[in-house]
Amino acid sequence: MGFLDNSGDIILDAVLTDHGRKVLAKGDGSFQITKFALGDEEVDYSLYDTTNTNGSAYYDLEILQTPILEAFTDNAVSMKSKLVTYESLELLYLPVIKLNEIIDGNSTARHSSGSFIVAVDGQTENDNGSTSAQNGIGYDSTGAPVTGILFGQTTSTGGRIRIDQGLDTDALSPATNLPADMVESSYTIQLDNRLGNIRTVAGGNVSLDYIDDDSIAYYTVTSEDGIVSDNPNKDSAGVAGQVIDGPRGTILEFKIGSSLSLQTSTYLFTQLGSTSRLDSRDGTGSEVYHIDTLVRVTGVNTGYTIDIPVRFVKFKST
Amino acid sequence: MANVGAFKNLGENDIVSTRTLLHEAIPLTGTIVSGTYNDNNIKFHTHGMFQTVYDYPYLSSSANHIFDITYGMSTKSAVYDTSVNQYKKKKNVYNQMAQILVGYDVTGSVLEFDADGNILAGGDKLRDSFIIPFSRLLVKDEIKKESFSMELGISSSVDYAGALFNDRITISDVGAKNSYFVNSPAGEYGILYATASAGQAADGTDQLLKTAGAVEIGSYNYHPVGLIYYQAGIVVLSGSVFKDVAEGGIITDASGSCNFFDANGNVSSSFDEMTDQFTIKTIGNNLRNRIYNISFNNTTELNSTIYFCRANHNEFNYSTNPTYLSNSKIIVKDDNPSADPVSYITTIGLYSPNDELMGVAKLSEPLKKTPSQEFTLRVRLDY
């Protein structure tokens, strides 16, 4: 997309998204627009210069000159950062969501490669429990689970992803109650449906809302889905395993199951991915197919978004 | 009370539907139709029913279909009999177009093209007609009334490099804005009138004297010579534009009827001889080579829904942009809780009840939003 002409009057460039067109084409009356949100994804607020000696009119001179791209039609690309409304205009802190990799030893941390790794089938996880073959990558040579490995087939075991929400500042005690309008009660999770699906910590299914034209599945989850809960550790700043330094809101915990096509075929791996080596159970290492993707988590009410890197891997050879 | 959160519902008064007619000028020069590409932009179909004009050599993927040319003859034409060259095809073309554009009488018989649009009253019929269907690419939803103009060379000469276009007439739907017909099954149509344009015809005294049925507008005589179907984008042109008065046409007898060439390029015939003896392809070639220019305005009907996205003074003053916060602290407040929050709008997302992103609008520059400002952003989606 090109830049919009910003030399004269402000213009609006509006398009239907590809998903919007898909819904419109259904012709079943499901195409409805009932709400709107405002976004500011091009803006870099670090350019807001409150030290400019020419006065406050110059604080945001750089920001106001930011060139804006034409609208993308891909629904998954736009509106990554939204403007939000709070009752109070005197807020100095806003809630964020953060990956918690320290709460439970190695089971919530990323792999040393920087991603969460989903072993897509039993062979890749632990050689389907075999004691003779030792090519799986889910456990190390001592039999301990490898940090950052999620079991995509046997989702009742393996690591998990945990996200904490709240005010991440030491200026406020965790004992302070987070205002009700800052407590996130609902999250949207986006994941490529060709690759995997969202599971509860116990390995159960989570129902999705819809799959868009690019095969991205959208899950809106609340406490009713069993993966959103209040953070019980609000009493003191010293509780171990917390990544939110200030008042704490809710926790989102989930696992990722692998899709049937990844379990049974290497087609998507050869189309979308590559190969690499990972440590295997016997310590000699295994060649694996891999696909890198992102899981996006957005707070529905507070609007904050984080992208989590995930790598799906499948055993190829020793 | 502010609508807390990232989404704001659109109310009844925030959504409105409108209809707008958009017009584009479509100029077609005669050299495109005959000359510029040495007919490499003309597709002659093996079935021989019509020829297609492209704006570029048609074997190129850049070529766009612009219009077709064909010829139809009614079985009631004075020329028609089974000895007419391609008589079945000419009859087929005429009846096909008449079925679509004029329809049937109460007995189910196909009606003929009527010269003045008054079908019930009978009167003159167009029985030997060129038919020019314009492509949807050009016409879009319809041709704008009183915008059509086609200039034709009517010199008796067939000297393409010289005298052919010395004498010209302009065929237009003059007055159609306020006078058109709705008794066609193919929508609205108007009458095409020919008037003097250039050469001998230009002085209004030689080529086009006032004949029966002609109307006088200003100092020129306008002769009804065809029909234009606006929604269908089809022009039906009478052969009378190439005949003199003695042959039932509009050109003065002193100037004489036009001559036409045969399939080998030899000048050999009058209009009636041409339609009798030549194929549709050759008849179409004769018309095509006499086109000096064509122009009209098309019409696109835009149905729009306008969403008024209202950001009140106490709404959308904070951002979830990762650069907005440093350790959860709002950086634009510079450590002062009493300072007004500032945010910048660059994008408007339109959502379904299930939070599916259906439409996106981008502002050409960031719009500063503070608690002392309110905005109404008008987003229009066209269908």
Would you kindly provide a written description of the structure presented here, covering whatever features stand out?
The complex is a heterodimer of chains A (318) and B (383). In chain A, 9% of the residues lie in helices and 29% in strands. Chain A has helices at 18-26, 61-64, 122-126, 260-264, 267-272, and strands spanning 12-16, 35-39, 83-84, 96-99, 116-119, 149-151, 161-166, 187-192, 196-199, 210-211, 216-221, 228-230, 248-258, 274-278, 286-299, 305-317. Chain B folds into 2 domains: 24-299, no CATH class; 312-382, no CATH class. Helix content of chain B is 10%, strand content 39%. Chain B has 5 helices and 25 strands. Chain B has helices at residues 30-33, 87-101, 136-139, 271-277, 280-288, and strands at residues 8-9, 15-29, 42-44, 51-54, 65-73, 113-114, 125-126, 128-133, 142-143, 149-153, 168-172, 181-184, 187-198, 215-217, 220-229, 234-238, 260-261, 267-269, 291-311, 318-319, 325-326, 329-330, 343-351, 357-369, 375-382. Chain B has a 15-stranded antiparallel β-sheet that branches. Chain B starts with 7 loop residues before the first strand and ends with a strand. Classes of the chains: A mainly beta (318), B mainly beta (383). Chains A and B meet through strand 1, helix 1, strand 2 and strand 3 of A and strand 1, strand 19, strand 20, strand 22 and strand 23 of B.
Task: Give the topology, please.
The complex is a heterodimer of chains A (318) and B (383).
Chain A: E1 12-16, H1 18-26, E2 35-39, H2 61-64, E3 83-84, E4 96-99, E5 116-119, H3 122-126, E6 149-151, E7 161-166, E8 187-192, E9 196-199, E10 210-211, E11 216-221, E12 228-230, E13 248-258, H4 260-264, H5 267-272, E14 274-278, E15 286-299, E16 305-317
Parallel strand pairs in A: 5-6, 5-16
Antiparallel strand pairs in A: 4-7, 7-13, 8-11, 8-15, 9-13, 10-11, 12-13, 14-15, 15-16
Chain B: E1 8-9, E2 15-29, H1 30-33, E3 42-44, E4 51-54, E5 65-73, H2 87-101, E6 113-114, E7 125-126, E8 128-133, H3 136-139, E9 142-143, E10 149-153, E11 168-172, E12 181-184, E13 187-198, E14 215-217, E15 220-229, E16 234-238, E17 260-261, E18 267-269, H4 271-277, H5 280-288, E19 291-311, E20 318-319, E21 325-326, E22 329-330, E23 343-351, E24 357-369, E25 375-382
Antiparallel strand pairs in B: 2-19, 3-4, 4-5, 5-8, 6-7, 8-16, 9-19, 10-11, 10-19, 11-13, 12-13, 13-15, 14-15, 15-16, 17-18, 19-25, 21-22, 23-24
